[in-house]
Amino acid sequence: MSSNWLEELEARLERQLEGFLRTNPQQEELLREQEARDRQQRLLAERGRLRQQAEEQRQQLLKLAEEIRQWQGRISRARSAGADALAGRAEAHVGALMDQGRHRWQALTDLGQRFASVERELAELVRQPANGGDSTPDLEADWARFEAQQELQELKRRMQRP
Predict the structure, then answer these.
(1) Backbone φ and ψ of 136, nearest 5°
(2) Buried b or exposed e, range 54-86, using 16+ CB within 10 angstroms
(3) What is the rounded CA–CA span in Å between residue 134 and residue 37?
(4) Digitized pLDDT (tens) for each residue of the chain, 162 residues in all
(5) Could you tell me which of 1, 100, 115 has the C-alpha nearest to residue 52?
């Protein structure tokens, strides 16, 4: 019963809002602009979170690579000392570390794809002015696009470095 009442109230309020916006087109325009700004802010926040996560993944990969190098050195020392059983266990450990590295690399790749998706959405938001007309994007939108492009290029450079 309460959900039915709530649905009726929601439908009634929606109709009233639509009627108000039809009679006040300038308010509808303001609402669209605010929705676009809100979406842009959400996307910018998501981009920041993704960038932070990517940096954390990158640092973890670097740490893992160093650990693998250390264990490979230990394997060599064990083999030269004739401790083949110990070297075999160390090789198994290196294999597990390599698997972790592959998973982390895939996670970093996934983050890069999500980052690119957010960038595309931001660029699309900048290309589509809120009023649907031919007005040029404002300085904030241009700046957001510029920053997004710069950050994407930096992320690509970091991912290409060993």
Answers:
(1) -80, 150
(2) beebbeebeebeeebeebeebbeebeeeeeeee
(3) 18
(4) 567 999 999 999 999 888 888 888 888 888 888 898 899 999 999 999 999 999 999 999 999 999 999 999 999 999 999 999 999 999 999 999 999 999 999 999 999 999 999 999 998 888 876 445 444 456 777 777 777 778 777 777 777 776
(5) 115
End-to-end CA distance of the chain: 61
Helix 84-127 to helix 139-160 angle, to the nearest 10 degrees?
A: 160
The length of the chain in residues reads 162
pTM confidence score? 0.63
Question: CA-CA distance, 25 to 33, in Å (whole number)?
Answer: 12
Tokens of 138: 């404002």
Q: Return the biggest CA–CA distance within the chain.
A: 88
C-alpha to C-alpha distances, 83 to 54, 70, 77, 144, nearest whole angstrom: 39, 17, 9, 59
